[in-house]
Design a protein that fits this description.
The protein is α+β, with helices and mostly antiparallel strands and 474 residues long. The chain has four domains: 105 residues, no CATH class; 100 residues, Sandwich (Immunoglobulin-like); 127 residues, Sandwich (Immunoglobulin-like); 69 residues. 27% of the residues lie in helices and 32% in strands. The chain contains nine helices and 24 strands. The strands form six sheets. The chain has a five-stranded antiparallel sheet with strand order 16-15-18-22-21. The longest helix is centred in the last third of the chain and has 37 residues. The N terminus is likely disordered. It is a multi-pass membrane protein. It comes from Physcomitrium patens. Belongs to the SWP1 family. Pathway: Protein modification; protein glycosylation. One of its GO terms (cellular component) is oligosaccharyltransferase complex.
């Protein structure tokens, strides 16, 4: 009996159909070789039927590996790298569940060749490879882009062209343009099918492109003045020379745009001031409107951060993103900054955030003086004297066990009463050693109830015994 497998989206499995039943088996995870368990199934000709029994055991496990989605079943996870005994045990279980014999045919495996697509001048195309389970190129397969979702917004994206074109040797490609996808990351679902088999790929790709910076204006102004249009404008990678005092401000404005002038906001947009003395300060630049960025540095508020260090500072613009092909550090200007001197006696050396910290000296509190040993022992003896006096008084009174019941319920009540008294004394000892007041009171209430009931019974027994003895005497 020959079994043919096809992927169905409803079940999440490669469904194998025969003349008797519908069965399920996950896709192999590697195009170079079949997993251990599937090779054993092929050799021993064990069928995958009775889907109701096997389906709970074959729930696929998902894992992401270099841009492709691997689908592994529980059988494969149990047998990959395991001992032959474990493999045979799983096979025996399958034989008991299924029974019979069959030859299994592999499905289609879709793998991503290009993990990123460039929208630059040398634009690349999205390429995938489609192979059968034994690693050979799949002949005459139909490959299409089923769905595209933006990772940032998780919203669907429409693509004008969705069919891949074959370029030979089991590889297929799809051309993308800036009108279809913009810079960012996208989740793709790619389906492949041939005459007998089907396969799919869920993956994430990065769409990259070079970005452009324009309308760059930098300058020093007084108060809230506006930058002059002519003197402050810079071309890309151009550097200017500026000078300022602590009473002035540095203003920077520029625009960032993607391909065809589209709006793009990089992940990292920063301005760095680097002084000759080693002082460094970094400032985040936020977007004002659309793709425009502005930053104003008030040197009056930066005197302390710059450690009162006058001199020449390098002004660097840093723009970067993981989908940018031309992330850069651009030296905008050389700034001669005049700052007031610091307080007398203050250190002019720059403070390093990651250098060694000053040593902290600390003296622990001296232990309190303890009394002499002989005084402590004398206090202990005085504490034990009342206990000794208690036992001496018992002997003087002639305490005995003549009235102790000989058996039955009165004997049990006497044992419970004296046991309760002993437990309370032990509780007092534990309170002195480790317990707190609240815990001691809770346990004391419980022990008090346990002591009360047998105490009442034994006292009633003694009262009745005393009355009986008086009646006999009279």
């Amino acid at each position: 009996m020959f079994i043919t497998r096809n992927y169905t989206e409803e079940s999440g499995f490669c469904e194998a159909s025969c003349s008797f039943c519908s069965i399920a088996k996950p896709n192999p995870c590697s195009s170079s070789s079949k997993p251990t368990i599937w090779r054993w199934f092929d050799v021993l000709a064990i069928p995958f039927d009775h889907a109701d029994k096997l389906r709970p055991l074959l729930l696929p496990l998902h894992s992401q590996d270099k841009g492709r989605k691997n689908r592994r079943g529980v059988f494969e996870a149990m047998t990959m790298g395991s001992s032959p005994a474990a493999t045979v045990l799983v096979l025996v279980m399958c034989c008991l569940l299924c029974g019979g014999g069959a030859a299994v045919e592999g499905g289609l495996i879709v793998e991503l060749v290009t993990p990123s697509v460039s929208l630059g001048s040398d634009a690349q195309k999205l390429q995938v490879s489609v192979t059968s389970s034994d690693g050979s190129p799949a002949p005459a397969a139909t490959v299409a882009l089923a769905s595209v979702h933006s990772v940032a917004s998780d919203s669907p994206v429409s693509i004008s062209e969705q069919s891949f074109a074959s370029i030979g040797d089991g590889k297929y490609e799809l051309g993308l343009s800036s009108s279809d996808l913009f810079l960012g990351k996208y989740k793709l679902r790619i389906d492949a099918s041939s005459d007998d088999d089907k396969g799919f790929l869920d993956t994430v790709i990065a769409v990259t492109a070079p970005i452009s910076v324009s309308n760059v204006k930098v300058g020093v102004v007084e108060g809230d003045s506006v930058l002059p249009e002519s003197d402050a404008r810079l071309e890309f990678k151009q550097t200017t020379t500026l000078s300022a005092t602590h009473l002035q401000k540095l203003k920077l404005a520029f625009e960032v745009s993607g391909p065809s002038g589209a709006l793009f906001k990089p992940q990292q947009v920063m301005l760095k001031l680097r002084g000759e003395s080693g002082v460094e300060q970094t400032f985040l630049i936020k977007s004002s409107t659309g793709n425009s960025y502005e930053l104003t540095l008030d040197f009056t508020k930066l005197v302390e951060k710059l450690n009162h260090q006058s001199g020449v500072y390098t002004v660097d613009l840093i723009v970067g993103d993981d989908v940018m092909e031309n992330s850069f550090l651009w030296t905008l200007a050389s700034l001669d900054l005049d700052l007031p001197e610091g307080p007398e006696g203050a250190s002019s050396a720059p403070v390093s955030k990651f250098g060694p910290k000053p040593e902290i000296s600390h003296i622990f509190r001296q232990p309190e003086k303890r009394p002499p040993t002989y005084l402590s022992m004398a206090f202990l003896v005085l504490t034990l004297l009342p206990l000794v006096g208690f036992f001496v008084a018992l002997l003087q009174l002639g305490v005995n066990l003549k009235n102790l019941p000989s058996g039955g319920l009165p004997l049990a009540a006497a044992a419970g009463f004296h046991g309760g008294i002993a437990s309370i004394l032990v509780l007092y000892l534990m309170f002195w050693l480790k317990l707190n007041l609240f815990t001691t009171l809770q346990v004391l209430g419980f022990l008090g109830l346990l002591t009360l009931v047998p105490g009442f019974n034994i006292l009633s027994y003694l009262a009745n015994l005393s009355s009986a003895s008086k009646v006999k005497t009279s």
